[in-house]
Amino acid sequence: MHTQKTEYVFSAQAIDEASQQTQLFLEQTAADKKSVLRLRLTVETLLLKWQLRFGEDAAFTLRTGSRFGRPYLLLETAGEAFDPTAQADRAGSEDFGEFGERVLANLGLTPTYSYKSGKNQLLFKLQKRKRNPFIGLCIAVSAALLFGFGGLAVLPDALRAGAVESVLTPLYNTFLGVLSAIAGPMIFLSVAWGIYGIGDAATLGRIGKKMILRFLGVTVLITAVSTALFLPFFDLHFSSATAAGSQLGGIFDMILGVFPENIVSPFADGNMMQIILIAAVVGSIMLILGSQTRAVAELIEQVNYIIQFLMELVGSLVPAFIFLVLLRLIWSDSLGVVSTGWKPILLFLLAATVILTGVLGYIAVKKRVSPLLLLRKCFPTFLIALTTASSSAAFGTNVACCEKQLGISGRLTNFGIPLGIVLYAPATAINFLVCALYMAENYQTEVSAAWLLTAVLIVSILTVASPPVPGGALACYTIIFSQLGLPDTALEVVLVLDVLFDFLATGFNMTFLQSELLLQANKMQLLDDKILRKRG
């Protein structure tokens, strides 16, 4: 996608031409027609505000292109500093604040304003068109099976063993090493910046703070309930110390183990609980000091974006890594470990369905609405997310469902849906947990009450803290398995299954989000009961 720069004056005809150029560019990048029309209208509205401010004789520039694969649109005009977005609805600003605006801007839903060298700039950072990951999975699996079984037929055993030992295993270990190197800083930066943003009322806002804390609390609750549902289905190797005192001592040791001996060792050893604690302390200190640490907070935010970009690059290599893992399993005669992969998938579907049914049933009783009507209204969003594994592809349908079918006020959905996509993913937490228990069963890892408590906490925190970027789930698996004492070889099967889990979890996450927003809207008196109960 080449960079294009066009200069206009603020006449009505020029603004219309710029809007048309914007639409043509967006049609190459946006996920759906609704996003194209919404962003075109936003651009036209902002240009008209600049026209009123600077006059029809003033000039502006429209620049489109991509940076590191991410499309962008930049509007620029010379003159005194004037932010046209500052005239937006102040009620929304008070509700969600600066932190919320940054979340929306990073998702490409609102522009970022800046004033540089005497020029006003509005930058739209658009989402990349996401290729269906199922295509990459099919290509990787097909190639691995072709080369794998073809190699079994024509290559000598010694040559295959040498390739596994000298090439495939080192590549596998290198990929995991890169994941581990990025995972620690990614979680540290996300937690530190998140606490700073959540705690500062001026940064986050009134409704935003309540929403995020509730997202975290509900995620922990769903993860704990999932643990209780899963335990009867796994033959786990529980610690021989069954006495209540021994179990309590194990939990106490786990709590003490969260505190590091120094600030360096957690990052060197990859102790994620200690890294999260340090991040929480740093974020809290920045919050207490307020404006004195503003520069540090902005630095952490910017470095966080860099780490997320690196994780996206790693995520783009996932099909190649799946090919590598399957080829390694075939040539080392270990493919049998994949044969029981149906178990975590089936248990995930069972737990997610039971918990979601319980949530929808609670809403149906509380609001006196048919549960089947709720399912029918939420199903289109679920289906789009399920078949594309993309929350962005389902975004337009999600907004329409929440506002026009469920009766949730736009005051809540305008920010709640983007924020929920980033922070609220209970189905992903269920996914992480069932995979951890599945591997603990396979490798007979010693399990105790402290182990289970650690699993619930680390899964819940990572689900909320990790950014929704390609490769983010891979980093989370690495962290979870390391923290729970599961071997690196356990990642081979899970990372292959994760592509399928991605489709399933995305679908369930969207319906969980709609249900949670409905409950929050009801509590905040932002719900229209007539629309919720309306059929057709």
From TrEMBL:
<feature type="transmembrane region" description="Helical">
    <location>
        <begin position="345"/>
        <end position="365"/>
    </location>
</feature>
<feature type="transmembrane region" description="Helical">
    <location>
        <begin position="303"/>
        <end position="325"/>
    </location>
</feature>
<feature type="transmembrane region" description="Helical">
    <location>
        <begin position="493"/>
        <end position="513"/>
    </location>
</feature>
<dbReference type="InterPro" id="IPR036458">
    <property type="entry name" value="Na:dicarbo_symporter_sf"/>
</dbReference>
<dbReference type="Pfam" id="PF00375">
    <property type="entry name" value="SDF"/>
</dbReference>
<feature type="transmembrane region" description="Helical">
    <location>
        <begin position="451"/>
        <end position="481"/>
    </location>
</feature>
<feature type="transmembrane region" description="Helical">
    <location>
        <begin position="415"/>
        <end position="439"/>
    </location>
</feature>
<keyword id="KW-0813">Transport</keyword>
<dbReference type="GO" id="GO:0015293">
    <property type="term" value="F:symporter activity"/>
</dbReference>
<protein>
    <submittedName>
        <fullName>Cation:dicarboxylase symporter family transporter</fullName>
    </submittedName>
</protein>
<dbReference type="InterPro" id="IPR001991">
    <property type="entry name" value="Na-dicarboxylate_symporter"/>
</dbReference>
<keyword id="KW-1133">Transmembrane helix</keyword>
<feature type="transmembrane region" description="Helical">
    <location>
        <begin position="272"/>
        <end position="291"/>
    </location>
</feature>
<keyword id="KW-1003">Cell membrane</keyword>
<dbReference type="GO" id="GO:0005886">
    <property type="term" value="C:plasma membrane"/>
</dbReference>
<feature type="transmembrane region" description="Helical">
    <location>
        <begin position="134"/>
        <end position="155"/>
    </location>
</feature>
<keyword id="KW-0812">Transmembrane</keyword>
<keyword id="KW-0472">Membrane</keyword>
<feature type="transmembrane region" description="Helical">
    <location>
        <begin position="211"/>
        <end position="234"/>
    </location>
</feature>
<feature type="transmembrane region" description="Helical">
    <location>
        <begin position="377"/>
        <end position="395"/>
    </location>
</feature>
<feature type="transmembrane region" description="Helical">
    <location>
        <begin position="175"/>
        <end position="199"/>
    </location>
</feature>
